[in-house]
Amino acid sequence: MSYAGVIGQSKRQLALAALSVSISRTRSCSSFVKKMAKEMKMKPRELGAVQDCIENMGDSIDRLSQSVREMGRVGEGVGEEFEWHMSNVQTWVSAALTDDNTCLDGFGGRAMNGNVKAAISFRVLHVAQLTSNALALVNRFASTHSLQTSPILN
What we know:
Elements: H1 4-7, H2 11-39, H3 44-74, H4 79-105, H5 115-149
Helix pairs in contact: 2-3, 2-5, 3-4, 4-5
């Protein structure tokens, strides 16, 4: 899907598109991890890490979805209301990124050097990069919008 027509020159639409891509890829990653949990024979430690990762991916999807809804409330508002909504979005996207990284942390250590780790880590790292990009675009929108709407101090 091409987002260029929807985004245009809008930093808000760019941030929303990045969040949408992040949600979509996180859902896909979560489905992959769930499928692996059902179909692959794993060591108990691997299975525990996979189950934790599934929970983390679910939390990440919830936080990213919450962020998209909150961005819808932002509109082109100004002042404290804008700042409050954007602070919520920034917090939730940052928390989603933490969820991704927590999933990766579960596969750390020498005991986790197999195919399960490689397959999941590759996909989760990609999701984390997309979420990080979305956070950067959200932050850019928030700071640019704040600068455009703040009174000039003398």
